[in-house]
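Meet our chain:
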Amino acid sequence: MRDRYEEIKSLGAELVTIGTGNVRYARSFVENEGISFPVLVDDGAEAAKAASIQRVGFLKLFDPASFPGSRRAWKAGHRVGMPGKRANQLGATFVVGPGPVVHYAHHDAHPADHAPLDEVFDALRG
């Protein structure tokens, strides 16, 4: 989504990332990845718990279903940085608002499972 941030903003939305690491890790992520949108830290897992985002066992981190996505990410030059203290925390994508309305939710099933961008943009366009 980083590469489409301006498009997201042009739709009147804001992209916010919530990470599992600490402030130092988040700062490094922002600098290394050239992030221009807000990055928040959920060091205590409050946001993850509130959104019912799953944590998985160690072996699920190497789920065979994640191999194709991991391979594509690696070929595209993406690398895993320092993990936060919840390295087994899966991710999720939400389109929220205006107000307390969730227009779209995708909870990752494995580490390389991410929300399809066409679905996210469909929700943004409403």
Observations:
- The domain at 2-121 is CATH 3.40.30 (Glutaredoxin).
- The mean pLDDT is 85.
- The CA atoms of residues 95 and 104 lie 5 Å apart.
